[in-house]
UniProtKB/TrEMBL annotation:
InterPro entries: AAA+_ATPase (IPR003593), ABC_transp_ATP-bind (IPR050319), ABC_transporter-like_ATP-bd (IPR003439), ABC_transporter-like_CS (IPR017871), P-loop_NTPase (IPR027417). It comes from Microtetraspora glauca. One of its GO terms (molecular function) is ATP binding. Pfam families: ABC_tran. Keywords: ATP-binding, Nucleotide-binding, Transport. Gene3D superfamilies: P-loop containing nucleotide triphosphate hydrolases. This is Dipeptide/oligopeptide/nickel ABC transporter ATP-binding protein. Residues 13-260 form the ABC transporter domain. Belongs to the ABC transporter superfamily.
């Protein structure tokens, strides 16, 4: 795997040999273990966009949860801005000011009883101690930044389209002023045109705020379009790592990666 490594001073997140195994069962007997993540390591630099691609069951969403602090690994380490995330029994939640997550389904991840302004303002009050009036003002500015008009500010999530809800989720993540946003299949449920709009929004925010992203997706064509580097996961392991510009069927190291690339539809000229 030939890929350019970032200087130590640029590294924002460093994951070293993390593993995670799940067991299925009814509580009375332990089921067969399933290895979701098997010795995965990665580094994400400030301002970098890394993509992790793989089919369902490859372990990519478990890896996203580990990086965000919502899934504790069985072994290995995760350092965010030089701070060990899992050094103690309970994770230091101040790390969540650095890392935020945007989920695949914005409807279930947004409180249906709150207005969009309240949803975005809540992190400002809880994490930054901003009073309610100022939090609402800043929330409105964030909603404007992600392309939502003031007309939707007083609505609840059920009154918004899928694309609008995802924009609201991004605004909520930005409210904490993170350095890294983890996007777990965050555009896969959207129509192609809306998907393109959200990806363009993320690109614009990346430039404006020097954000780093970890994009989790089963769609390698989306990953190649926007990411700087690509990790390919299969059965819990990283089987390929390349810069997005250099990854082709010819340069891929693993047959699984070549299979993913060969499945991407190609445009052909018609007479």
């Amino acid at each position: 795997m030939s890929v350019e490594r970032k200087a130590e001073s640029d590294v924002l997140v460093e994951v070293e040999s993390v593993t995670k195994t799940y067991r299925t069962g009814n509580g009375l007997r332990r089921g067969t273990p399933t290895v979701a993540v098997d010795g995965v390591s990665l580094r994400i630099a400030q301002g970098e966009w890394m993509g992790v691609v793989g089919e369902s069951g490859s372990g990519k969403s478990t890896l996203a949860g580990i990086v965000c602090g919502v899934v504790r690994p069985d072994s290995g380490s995760v350092r965010v801005a030089g701070q060990e995330m899992y050094a103690r029994r309970r994770m230091d939640r101040t790390i969540w000011k650095t890392v935020q997550m945007v989920f695949q389904d914005p409807y279930t991840s947004l409180n249906p009883a709150m207005t969009i302004t309240e949803i975005v303002a809540e992190p400002l009050r809880l994490w930054h101690g901003v009073d309610r009036r100022e939090a609402d003002r800043q929330a409105m500015a964030l909603l404007d930044q992600v392309g939502l008009s003031s007309a939707v500010a007083g609505r609840r999530p059920g009154g918004l389209s899928g694309g609008q809800r995802q924009r609201a989720s991004i605004a909520r993540a930005l409210a904490v002023s993170p350095s890294l946003i983890v996007l777990d299949e965050s555009v896969s449920a959207l129509d192609v045109s809306v998907q393109a709009q959200i990806l363009q929004l993320l690109l614009d925010l990346k430039r404006e705020r020097d954000l780093a992203y970890l994009l989790i997706s089963h769609d390698i064509s989306v990953i190649r379009l926007v990411c700087d580097r690509i990790l390919v996961m299969n059965k819990g392991e990283v089987v390929d790592e390349h810069s997005a510009a250099s990854l082709t069927e010819e340069t891929a190291d693993h047959p699984y990666t070549r299979r993913l690339l060969s499945a991407v539809p190609r445009m052909t000229a018609s007479g």
